[in-house]
Predict the 3D structure of the following.
Amino acid sequence: MSFQISKDLKLPRDAATWVLAFLAKRGAGKTYCSSVLAEEMLKAKIPIVVVDGMGIWWGLRVGKNGEGPGLPIVVFGGEHADLPLVPEKAKSIARAIVQANISAVIDLSTLSKLQSRRIVMDFLDELYQINRVERHVFIEETDLWAPQRTIGPEQAQCLGAVDNFVRRGGNHNLGCSMITQRSAVLNKDILTQSDCLVVLRTLAPQDKKAIQAWVEEQTDEDRRKLNQWYDSLKELKNGESWIWHPEKPAIYKKIMFRERETFHATRTFLLSPRASTIKLMDVNEFIDKFRNVFEPKPPPQTVKPSVPAIRANQPISTYIPRNTLTHTPASMPGGNIPKIIPQDSDTAKVQQVVPNLILEKLRPTAQLPADLLENPPTPLARVLVAVTNHEGRDDRWTGAKIKTSIREHAWPDDGVDEAIAELTRWEILRKQSNNYLRFYRDRVQVVDRPYEVAVS
């Protein structure tokens, strides 16, 4: 078995445990080409993990043109999450991935740099300790987690975790692909551990010097010829690269990577309206395998019918699992609060719910009574009505734009910031990497029944 990455080059199966470095300037195709290798491994049923700081590798789950099924891989975190990504549970997620033997994308794109480093550090450390089968890890933008110069203990610890993983992962059947647009910024001690260099178009002199440091350790080729080779890197087309593997099987070849068989989520696409319409391949079978390992089903418990009422003005910050409960808009004037109503009942009292934040998709649904649409009585209701009635794009909201829309209705805009924060906690609004708010229209239901409240 081999990996057909171009029409005239197959990498041997052993490449699953190689350390590869995909080096290129921005836009030259390093993510595209490394995804081709990922496709080959997934088709060969070799489990992979992608550490994705860009939020684009979920495209492996979608057909080439954005339609139809892709390849089976579970997405943790990000805009297309199958399961949430919680920094404190990174080691547990690694253990469950190994035990269930699934492929996964760890999407860090919606987390802070500090949270992301902690996840990378804990996840790679645990994976290194427990993995025994062939598994390949793609680390997107590796220089973020393993920079040449570290600032502070968090960066140093993360660098140490990546360094140990790259150097010694082969002892545990782990391969690795490092992907970076800044060869000069990636830690040189890690870069020199690469078994195979995949060099795409490179322009910056300092990045060429980083490549040169690796090459000159691997070959006795005449320096003049090498200088000509370095200069030729700027002429490479998108997707065209030099593959250099000095050990057996020796490979030194310029190739054009084959076209992807799955969807390439470009930056332009992520900003387009069509981004919210893409449907990922169903991987419920793999998600169930993960859940069964991560946390076996607990014995059924009887929920007591009588629970304390929520106090007036107390923020509702507990997440509610999808298909368990729905919530109506926030507190009414006069000390009243909305009921939280199970979907199979219109009259049940508030129930206390302690969801498992790892195993459930957090998809609350706000029920907006139709009689509130003309004159919503609370800040939260006014925000919901304003964004629901808007006919433009749902991924370009800001706090200022929401306030403007509310004032255009001649409604007061006091309490709007707190309402936006509450809707963000419920993930009906969600802050994106570009700082805009995305409104999830499908999580708001306009219902005919009157606005019911429970007095504390």
